[in-house]
Amino acid sequence: MSRIRALHPQPLLQGFAGSLLLTLAACNAAQPGPSQVEVADQDLAVVAAEQPQASPRAKKTELQRHVVVASLPAVGQPGVPMADYLPPTYREQYREQYQTIADNPVHAVAQMPVSTFSIDVDTGSYANVRRFLNQGQLPPAEAVRLEELVNYFPYAYPLPQGDTPFGVGTELAVTPWNPQSRLLRIAIKAADLSVAAMPPANLVFLVDVSGSMDRREGLPLVQSTLKLLVEQLRAEDSVSLVVYAGSSSVVLEPTAGSDKARIRAAIDQLRAGGSTAGESGIQLAYQQAQQGFIKNGINRILLATDGDFNVGISDFEALKQLAADKRKSGIALTTLGFGTDNYNERLMEQLADAGDGNYAYIDNLREARKVLVDQLGSTLAVVARDVKIQVEFNPAQVSEYRLLGYENRALKREDFSNDQVDAGEIGAGHTVTALYEIVPAGNKGWLEPLRYQPAEITTRKQGELALLRVRYKAPQQGSSRLLEIPIEAQRSAPAIAQASEDLRFAAAVAAFAQQLKGAQYMGEFDLAASADLARSSKGEDRFGLRGEFVQLVELAQSLQTPSSLPAPSAAKVD
Fold first, then answer.
1. On the CB side of 85, how many CA atoms lie within 13 Å of its CA?
2. Cβ(238)–Cβ(230) below 8 Å
3. Range of the domain at 424
């Protein structure tokens, strides 16, 4: 076997699975050979019988997953599907699906001064990346969406002023990985909303109970997650429970939030098995949501699944269109991702986008509490819809720029003023961060200078770096409002060490995301530098999230060992 990388002790090195991995590592040191671990099914079944806390199928799947993890190469290659790294024996088992999108390119301001995109408040990519790292492997490049890593964390941004539902601020500093460029941060912060102050909620729990959810990180974790939310319900709230496997059914008709015992009992009785008719489940969930519709209230479906649909409509675009059509009824769709090996992250993230909802990946109960208890207002209560950002750079001040992240949220310039074009939603208490790396005029950039452009560019707005435009709709309105905020030019931007804690930490997260995807623009700025920058900007860290991030960067650093294997060919998913 080829060299097995050092594995993180939690949660892999537990019980027999941990012993097996240690044994494999010892054998690996003595027996070089192909990167493949062969374990017969009958041997797996014997071992699984020694773990009575899970079903036989779940135990076998769990052990197979750990064996596969042990045989992965040490370093992921940018843009390469994770299945390409697996031994042939296990490639059929590994069916995780991700969307492959190229990073945003560098633009010359003289040719393209305007950048337009939809905001994004999803956080699922961060939790999913954490899951990979905690299993002892680097994540596939396509699993890393920079904006979702950055937006996972709360920041102390300016609060709303007047009748605007969110505050907007900007900050500029020297880019930590490139002294020739500057890092421009756009910060948006919505006011917090207590659970007691939220409008009445009509919620439909839509739960996948198919066979693929028959594992401890599947249905059992879903049940524990939903019961955390049940404890937050009020008497004026209503809950329905719909399930799907080979077919779909209503387990719980609309029930008052005060009847917690009945709701918990309905959740506890769920059992997994069968195929996955996800489309029929979604249709039935929308019917239930329409039946209990609350005017001027919160009407939302929470879909808990691994996204492995195989009965009924399973076409990706058809499912997205279904969610997009249904959002017009005022019912939002939030997706909560669970599971491993067959996880369809691509579908989960884009279903939520199409359904005017948000996407989170639940890898443990702590994450469940963050999404459905600590940040319940952000998850359920929308304060602004179809939020778009447009930045027009001043060519007299900025020669080049690149937007960090938001690749699948890009909009055409003309989409900004078109109220028919859908964009992202901001929930109560949400913070949204957008980062641009910009090259000041006169500094060395990434692009070769053009021969036939004017030698000097003049403008009447010499004191402005850029103009920031934000367009949004109030929750119950169909026409948008426009905010315009000039960004002042600075004689010299402060070094990153003199920037705010929030900008420094966001820069560390953005650097980490780029390093996981290949570090094309990072120069000599490595994972150790990202960890140092994050460690110096942890601040108060009330929930310990920033401290955890530092540990993840250090873990990635220990896993990033040279690989002797050639990079498999990339496969793009459009």
1. 26
2. no
3. 107-193+382-445+461-494
pTM: 0.82
The whole-number average pLDDT for the span 85-101 is 62
Residues in CB range of 358: below 8 A, 6 or more apart: 121, 122, 123, 334, 335, 352, 379, 425, 427
In a domain, 543, yes or no: no
Q: How far apart are CA 288 and CA 247, in angstroms?
A: 16
Contact 442, 550 (CB under 8 A): no
The domain boundary, picked from 91, 121, 156, lies at: 91
- Under 8 Å CB-to-CB from 485, ≥6 apart: which residues? 168, 170, 467, 468, 469, 470
Give the whole-angstrom CA distance, residue 196 versus residue 393. Answer: 43
**CA 36 to CA 510: how far, in whole Å?**
34
Number of domains the chain is built from: 3
* Sign of the alpha-carbon dihedral angle for 161, 431, 423, 382: negative
Q: Which helix (H) or strand (E) holds 439?
A: strand 431-440
Is 455's pLDDT higher than 90? Answer: no
In a domain, 240, yes or no: yes
Task: Determine the angle formed by the axes of helices 527-535 and 501-516, rounding to 10 degrees.
Answer: 160
Bridge partners for 424 per DSSP:
387
Question: Looking at the structure, do residues 346 and 386 belong to the same domain, yes or no?
Answer: no
Query: What pLDDT does 274 receive?
Result: 72
Claim to verify: residue 345 and residue 332 sit in the same structural domain: yes
Residue linked to tokens 């369809």: 344
Encode pLDDT of 274-323 as tens digits: 766 667 888 899 999 999 999 999 999 999 998 877 545 556 688 888 88
* Domain identity same for 223 and 311: yes
Residue 422 burial (CB < 10 Å; 0-12/13-18/19+)?
middle
CATH number at residue 271: 3.40.50.410
Q: What's the mean pLDDT when you consider all of the chain? A: 82
Identify the CATH number of the domain in which residue 404 sits: 2.60.40.1230
Q: Which of 361, 380, 399 is the last residue of a domain?
A: 380
- Asked if residue 102 belongs to a domain, the reply is no
Contacts of 144 by beta carbon, 8 Å cutoff, 6+ apart = 125, 129, 513, 516, 517
Task: Looking at the structure, tell me whether residues 48 and 166 fall in a common domain.
Answer: no
Q: How far apart are the first and last CA of the chain?
A: 35
**Using one digit for the tens of pLDDT, what is the confidence trace for 365-423?**
999 999 999 999 999 999 999 999 999 999 999 999 999 999 999 999 999 999 999 99
Residue 485 in domain: yes
Same domain, 199 and 219: yes
Per-residue pLDDT at 124: 95
pLDDT tens-place string over residues 245-288: 877 899 999 999 999 999 999 999 999 887 666 678 888 999 99
